[in-house]
Structures are given as C-alpha cells and as structure tokens.
Design goal:
This protein has 1 helix and 5 strands; from the N terminus they run βββββα. It is mainly beta and about 80 residues long.
Length: about 80
C-alpha cells in the first residue's frame, strides 16, 4: 500500500458503503479518503483498508479541487 496515493476505492462498510473515494494518504493499515462532497479534501475520512475495495484506477491529484474530484468520481463505475 506504499504507492496508493490517488487510487480510487469503493467503501465496503459504514454509512458510506458503496460510494467511491480517492486515497489521499496512508498510515499503517488506515487510508485517508475523500470524495469532494461529503468528505472534502481538507478533512478526509480515516478508514481501515480492509473496509475498502481497490479498483486499480488512479486519479491525478495535482491541482485537484473538491469540485473536480466530485466530477471525476461521478464517472467511475
């Protein structure tokens, strides 16, 4: 999970189950995720990595805003 920054994931557990997010950073077995709508880039959610499905798709996080992130994730299937 070293190079998972920018990886698009789907939540498996919690109130955000079924929603797509982008990993901003990782610490131990936890990922800090954001979607630009309910979880902004400024206050990402800390989630255990075993509660996430890794899609294998990456998002470019350079010059990303909450609006751009929300639009990008709305096109993910």
């Amino acid at each position: 999970m070293n190079d998972s920054k920018g990886l698009i994931v789907k939540a498996l557990a919690g109130r955000d189950c079924g929603k797509f997010f982008v990993i901003l950073r990782t610490e131990d077995s936890y990922c800090f995720i954001a979607d630009g709508k309910s979880r902004k880039l400024e206050s990402p959610k800390r989630k255990n990595s075993k509660h996430l499905i890794f899609t294998g798709q990456y998002a470019d996080l350079s010059n990303i805003t909450n609006k751009k992130l929300k639009k990008l994730l709305s096109n993910v299937k």
